[in-house]
Design a protein that fits this description.
Largest sheet: 6 strands, parallel
Structural class: alpha/beta
Strand content: 15-25%
Number of helices: 7
Order of helices and strands: EEEHEHEHHEHEEHEHE
Helix content: 25-40%
Length: 237
């Protein structure tokens, strides 16, 4: 039997293989996977950071404001990951009330991240993605305007092309999250995986993460963090 490193997470065991992947060399040329986490930070952040560190993987965190989580924003940056904008409140009624409200939300989270970490970023993800339809409830036609105006204001937005669906239903079994990712990769050379760092609802994301990382290792992908020059994956529907 192979031994394992065990960590506690939300009362369950998280098992990591003893083999360390720090010297892994991807065997597929130009195949890159970007692991992204929305809606954090949360009580899951430390465990996510520990797993990423164990596998020597950098990721991208699209964060919102959470009270009393100051140390988590700092931890993301201190661990060498990318921290990016996902709105201040993630309340659709505020984010999508109109252009002015949207940019107020982005400015507020940008300022807060800067206050906590010293990082100023223009990398962002729309709540619900650029293809969301919820915005129509509050301001019809807004998304078409926003996709143009964010670019004009120097923002770079990223969607995703692989969805773990960890936010579709609370505590989705980790094996289902893994299969969701595996079944969506196809022959994509650039993969952007949507996951969430949103506390108890997505606690099983933490449990699935080691196997998701190993899946990309097995498929020969490098795993990198995003910056404003990363190839942009946008929804076109």
């Amino acid at each position: 039997e192979s031994s394992s490193v065990e960590e506690e997470n939300n009362g369950g065991e998280l098992k990591l293989p003893m083999e360390h992947y720090i010297n892994f060399v991807p065997h597929k040329k130009d195949c890159v996977a970007y692991l992204t986490f929305d809606d954090g930070p949360s009580e899951n952040t430390d465990a996510i950071l520990d797993i990423l560190d164990y596998y020597n993987v950098k990721a991208t965190f699209f964060v919102i404001y959470h009270k009393d989580m100051e140390d988590k924003y700092k931890a993301i940056v201190n661990a060498g990951h990318t921290i990016a904008l996902h709105s201040y409140s993630h309340e659709y009624s505020s984010v999508y009330a109109g252009e002015a409200s949207f940019f107020d939300e982005m400015n507020r989270i940008s300022d807060y991240i800067y206050e906590q970490t010293g990082v100023r970023t223009k990398l962002m993800r729309f709540p619900g993605g650029s293809s969301n339809t919820i915005s129509r409830k509050y301001s019809r036609g807004l998304m078409k305007k926003l996709k143009k105006s964010v670019t004009e204001r120097g923002y770079v937005y990223q969607d995703w092309n692989v969805d773990s669906r960890d936010a579709a239903k609370a505590k989705t079994p980790p094996e289902k999250l893994l299969s969701n990712v595996r079944n969506s990769i196809g022959d994509k050379k650039t993969v952007v995986v949507l996951m969430h760092d949103s506390g108890n609802k997505t606690a099983t994301t933490v449990q699935a993460l080691p196997e998701i990382i190993e899946l990309f290792y097995e498929k020969g992908y490098s795993m990198e963090k995003m910056d404003i020059n990363t190839e942009q994956i946008h929804h076109n529907w």
